[in-house]
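Entry
Fold in token form

___
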Amino acid sequence: MRCPACGHEDTRVVDSREAEDGQSIRRRRACDKCGERFTTRERSESARIQVVKRDGSRQEFDRRKLASAIGKGASRALTPEATDRLIDDLEATIRQSGTSEVASQRIGEMVLERLAEQDPMSYLRFKIVYSGLQDTDALYDELEALVRRRQEARDRRLAEQITLPIEPAGVTVAPRRRRSAAR
């Protein structure tokens, strides 16, 4: 591993630990020449995902390229850690589907789905760039749709939290009578 400070090729590992996500290893390294310390992360490689571009060409899935695209459209509320988690989730979804190729349009849609839940401003900014929205009416329509989807999701979550009493069908329960104090 080359030293990022001096470019020397001989560095040594000082410490290795599993990263928080459990999907990668974090290594602290030290350069033998200049003494610079730096961190690297290693991820296991499984079957490579091919992205089919709009023109039909194929490229290998690149996390850094996707993170850059999301970062350009993201608001300040979307942290780099949240972006990494979003990409981890997206990549896991693609791998679990069992497909080795995915259209770039589908990746964009998957990013939009996740951004709509996490950060509405990042969703709108990414949508403007991704879909090439030029018309203010189209932007207004997209904003309306986002507000509607978020409200429906809130309503669903609220409905899931409400517990309803369940009584067997056809059985009526007679109301209890209060005892009088005169007995």
